[in-house]
Amino acid sequence: MQVPVEIAFHNIDSADWAETMIRNRISELERLFDRITSCRVRVDQRAKSNGTSIPPVVRIEIGIPGRADLVVSHEPEHLQRKYQRPDLQKAINEAFRIAERQLVGLKEQRQGKTKAIYSDAQNQRLGQVAEVQPDQDFGYLVTSEGSLLYFHRNSVLAGDFDALGRGDELYYVEGVGDTGPVATKVRVKAAE
């Protein structure tokens, strides 16, 4: 890490065990993603409600070259829903769990191991609108093989369903619906 770790406690007494725990979790993040340049952690105790303490909020800001800081923060209600007795240790663990998940996602994205939504391009095909029923929210497109595929208004990801007309070119991914093959993830081909 290029910049020393910053740990701050606001409206809560700092505890050696908590600071040690945070530093250990930061070390784990560095092993997971070695391009981290800075890390700032703020532990904030918000006001008390009806004499009971609201769980602390742990906010983590991670500096990574070539992108905006990765910021992890959760609302106290999240901890209260997840744990019967949320405390500082659980707040730290939860914040770092979220940070780890986001760093793994970023690492996979940079290595080209992205989620299926990004790999649809290889399964994408080109078709043309055969018929559109805007009042009934569906249409049919003609595939390059000449067959008809049903598509619903909600499957149009890019483009205006209401502006579609016969002959418009669409990219789509073929899926299986209740009654057979359907066009999903439909995108209107941009005019060249």
TrEMBL record:
InterPro entries recorded: NA-bd_OB-fold (IPR012340), RHF-like (IPR036567), RHF/RaiA (IPR003489)
Name used for this protein in its record: HPF/RaiA family ribosome-associated protein
Species, as recorded: Rhodoplanes tepidamans (Rhodoplanes cryptolactis)
CDD domains: RaiA
Top-level taxon in the UniProt lineage: Bacteria
Pfam families xref list: Ribosomal_S30AE (PF02482)
Positions of transmembrane segments: none
